[in-house]
Structures are given as structure tokens and as C-alpha cells.
Amino acid sequence: MPRATILGLISDTHGLLRPEALRALQGADYIVHAGDIGSPEILDALSTIAPVTAIRGNIDTQPWAAAIPETVTADLAGVRIHVVHNVHDLAIDVRAARIRLVVSGHSHKPGLRTENGVVYVNPGSAGRRRFRLPVTVATLVLSGPLEPVFHDLENRESATLKV
Fold first, then answer.
1. Where are the domains of the chain?
2. Which residue ranges of the chain lie beneath pLDDT 70?
3. Beta-carbon neighbour count of residue 18 at 10 Å?
């Protein structure tokens, strides 16, 4: 039986890629970075783990980021995914586009909701701490129900986080 495909989700690194984020994403078959990357070295480092699909966030305004798209729609392991930095900027009809998973960032707050059969995931911020929000990434098995696991990068006693 083939192994299930694992998707790593990361956002809002703002130029800081913590070793804990790299460890949490080990074993991922694909990685999605939902914007506010901060530097091209972040994508280089992530690509040593797995192929990376990334979008630009509102801070990614330097020349190196010009070739990175603002949104991406992709099919991974039979799951149609749409990536947008700020979910409030979602400009497509996800149901008509047959999207099963929307990945976003921007708020720095990990989040999960399902609406009309579409799963919306914000992996939170993996960069510098903002306010009192946790520092997180997420992983997701792309088979069966889409149920992400959120990884708290600063709390070793509780590697997973409920949202």
C-alpha cells in the first residue's frame, strides 16, 4: 500500500526560518508557503525538505519576489488547493473551481474552519512572535478527511496545538 502524501504548511516567516519549523516539516512530500516569506533563502531551505509552492505576501515587495505569484491553485495527490496570503482577498469562487483546501496566512493566527465542504487552513506564523500568538506550522495528510495538525514551535512539551 502506498504511503499517504503529507503536505507541510508554513506562512509569515518574515525572513526567519526557525530550526524547529524545519524539524516539524521533515517528512513532508510537498510544502506550501502562504506568503510573507521575507527572503529567498527561506524557500531555498524549505526546498531541501520537499518541493515548495509559494506565494507572495504583502511584505514580499523586493525584486527577488517579483516572480512569485500572488495566488496559486494546484492539484496535489488528488486534492485541489488554492493558496492566498490574506483569506479576505480570496477572489475566486472556490466551490465552482472545485477547491477542497484553501491555505492562507497573514493574520499570524493558526486557524481551521470548514465551510460548504471546503477546508480553510491558516498554519499561523513561523517567524518572529507577534503579540501573544503561538509560533506554528501545520502538516496535513492529503487522503481521507483533511485534518491538519498544528505544531507549536516554541512549546516542546506540547508539540501539537488545538485550534
1. 6-161
2. 1-2, 156-163
3. 16
* Residue 161 contacts residue 24 (beta carbons within 8 Å): no
Cα angle vertex 99, ends 97, 49, to 5°? 130
pLDDT at residue 68, rounded to an integer: 98
pLDDT of residue 98: 97
CA distance 125 to 58: 14
> Distance between CA atoms of 94 and 84, rounded to whole angstroms?
12
> Do 70 and 85 contact (CB within 8 A), yes or no?
yes
pLDDT at position 2:
64
6-161 CATH choice from 3.20.20.70, 3.60.21.10, 3.40.50.2000, 3.30.70.940: 3.60.21.10
Burial of 45 (0-12, 13-18, 19+ CB in 10 A): middle
Q: What is the DSSP string of 84-108?
A: ESSGGG--S-TTTTT-SEEE--SS-
